[in-house]
From TrEMBL:
It comes from Actinomadura rayongensis. This is Flavin-dependent monooxygenase. NADPH binds at residue 39. Signal peptide: none annotated. It is an enzyme of class 1 (oxidoreductase). It is found in: Cytoplasm. Keywords: Cytoplasm, FAD, Flavoprotein, Monooxygenase, NADP, Nucleotide-binding, Oxidoreductase. GO terms for molecular function: FAD binding; monooxygenase activity. The keyword Kinase does not apply. It catalyses: a tetracycline + NADPH + O2 + H(+) = an 11a-hydroxytetracycline + NADP(+) + H2O. Consists of an N-terminal FAD-binding domain with a Rossman fold and a C-terminal substrate-binding domain. Its EC number is 1.14.13.-.
Amino acid sequence: MSRIAVVGGGPAGLAFARVLARHGRPVTVLERDRSPAARPPGGSLDLHAGLGQRALEKAGLLAEFRAAARPEGQAMRILDPGGAVLRDWRPGPDERANPEIDRGRLRDLLLGGLEDVRWGWEVAEVVPGGGGAVVRCADGREEAFDLVVGADGAWSRVRAAVSGAVPEYAGVTYVETSLDDVDARHPGLARLVGDGAVAVYGVNRGLVAQRGGGGHVKVYAQYRTPQGWPADVDPGDADALRAAVLDLLDGWAPPLLDLVRHGTAFVRRELHVLPVGHAWAHVPGVTLVGDAAHLMPPLGAGANLALLDGAELAEAIVGAGDLDGAVRAFEERMGARAGRWAARTAAGLERLVGADPARAVALFDEVQPS
C-alpha cells in the first residue's frame, strides 16, 4: 500500500487524513507545532453547505459538526461609521447555509481517530524523485513517501517542490485584537456584536467584530495601505498598535472605537495572496492543497476550499488504482475551482476595503442568503 504523508495539521491536511482513515488507508500527518495546544487556534469559521460541510460529510463528521456549530453565528449587522444600522440580517430557525464553528473545535473534530500525527516535525523541504518524495526536516530527520501533500499554508515549504510562486502583498493590512468574556465584562459591546458579526466600512478602511464561542470576540481593523504601515510602530507593541488603529478610525462612533480600546493582544497581519489561477506542471510524488495551492483574501472561502480540497483528494486516491493519475486529475479540478474563487475574493477585497463604502454594503446584499 502507498506511503502517504500530509504536511500541515490545518483544515486541509486533517480533512485529507480523516477521509483516508475513514476508508482504511494509512496516512502520516506531519505538523510543526509540538502539540495541539502549542498556539491559539484562531477565531471562528463559517462552513458553507456546498464546500466545508460537504467535506465534513465525506469525512463522516457532518453530524458532529452540526452538534458543535453555532447557526446563530450567521447573523450579520452592518453599521456606518457614525453607528447607524444599515443592514441587520439574522438567520431563520432552520438556516444552515453557513453556520459558525471555532477553529479549535473544528480541529479537534478532525484530529479524532487519526493514528499517526507527528507533532514537532518542522519540514524544511520536500525533494521529489523516482515517483515519490523525501521529506527533510529542520532538525535533520528525513523520510521517504510515495506521495507528499503540502497542506502547510501560505508560506508552504512544500510549494517549492512544484512551483516557484510566492505570495504577494494584497494591498490590505489587518490589525487583529480580541475581547474575552464579552457578555460579562462589556455587555454593551456584546449587544453591538450580537450573535454573529458586525461590520463597518469607511474609505479604504473597515472594522469587523465576530463572536466566537465562550464569550470570545475577534476584532479586525482593516485598511488599504502600502506595505509596512504603520512604519514607526513596533508590531509587538500592543499599545502603539491600538493607538495607530484608533487614529485610523478617528471620528467613528465611540462604541465602535471601544471595540479597539478594550482589545488585548494586538497583532498586525499583512494580507498576501498567490496569483489568481496559480497552477503548476504536475510533479509525481508531490501536490498541494488549501492555502499552499491557492492563497486568497480571507473572505469566507479559504478554509472551506481547504477542507474540500483535502477531502476530494483523499477520495480520488481511494477510488483509483493509479495514484499519480488520480493526483494529476485532482489538480486540474482543484485549479479550475480555486481560480474562480480567487478571482471572486480578489474583487471582493477591492470593494470591501476601497474608496466607496457604499460598494462594500452592496456586496453584502449580493452574498447574503435570501
